[in-house]
């Protein structure tokens, strides 16, 4: 007797729930991700030209989130005569942000840096002794 009307009401309620769910999901996504998608990362490393270990720092991608993927060029001496075996990015708070071992003869590696804050790119040797530290700032233009 009321089968058709109940189905129509049920579909309308289901549809509203889906619509509300999707709307809430979009709003939650915007709140959680507000300002976290950026383009055109820029890198500042004032003492890079004086480095015995680090040759270049270039964005590996044209976009960033809360971190940027950076191509790190190493000098020929870095992993040979200087014995560098690990690179680490340390946040200004002192926490390790990213770390990667390097092999003898390796001249490049891709690393992760925080965006919008000072970080320190450090190199240590096979005895875990400090070789060099480079101050790095990565910024980008927020689009979302």
Word description of this protein:
- The structure is a single chain.
- With 144 residues, the chain is α+β, with helices and mostly antiparallel strands.
- The protein has two domains: 1-33; 38-142, Immunoglobulin-like.
- Helix content is 22%, strand content 45%.
- It has one helix and nine strands; from the N terminus they run H-E-E-E-E-E-E-E-E-E.
- The strands form two sheets. The chain has a six-stranded antiparallel beta sheet, with no helix packed on it.
- Strand 5 (84-91) and strand 6 form a beta hairpin.
- The longest helix is centred in the N-terminal third of the chain and has 31 residues, at 3-33.
CATH-derived topology of the largest domain: Immunoglobulin-like
What sequence of helices (H) and strands (E) makes up the elements? HEEEEEEEEE
Q: Note the quaternary state here.
A: single chain
**Tally of individual helices:** 1
Summarize the amount of helix as a percent range.
10-25%
Which of globular, elongated, flat, extended, rod-shaped describes the shape? elongated
Offer a few descriptive terms.
six-stranded antiparallel beta sheet; Immunoglobulin-like; 144 residues; alpha+beta; three-stranded antiparallel beta sheet; 2 domains
Short summary:
Helix content is 22%, strand content 45%. It is of the alpha+beta class. It has 2 domains: 1-33; 38-142, Immunoglobulin-like (Sandwich), CATH 2.60.40.
Helices and strands, with pairings:
Blueprint: H1 3-33, E1 38-44, E2 54-59, E3 63-64, E4 67-74, E5 84-91, E6 96-101, E7 108-114, E8 118-125, E9 130-142
Antiparallel strand pairs: 1-3, 1-9, 2-4, 4-7, 5-6, 5-8, 8-9
């Amino acid at each position: 007797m009321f089968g058709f009307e109940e189905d129509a009401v049920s579909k309308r309620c289901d549809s509203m729930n889906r619509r509300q769910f999707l709307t809430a999901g979009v709003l939650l996504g915007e709140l959680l991700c507000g300002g976290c998608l950026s383009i055109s990362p820029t890198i500042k490393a004032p003492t890079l030209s004086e480095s015995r270990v680090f040759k270049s720092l270039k964005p590996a991608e044209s976009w960033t989130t809360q971190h940027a993927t950076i191509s790190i060029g190493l000098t020929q001496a870095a992993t040979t005569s200087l014995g560098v075996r690990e690179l680490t990015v340390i946040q200004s708070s002192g926490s390790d942000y990213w770390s990667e071992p390097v092999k003898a003869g390796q001249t490049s590696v891709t690393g992760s840096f925080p965006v919008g804050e000072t970080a320190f790119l450090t190199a240590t040797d096979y005895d875990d002794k400090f070789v060099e530290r480079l101050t790095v700032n990565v910024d980008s233009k927020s689009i979302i």
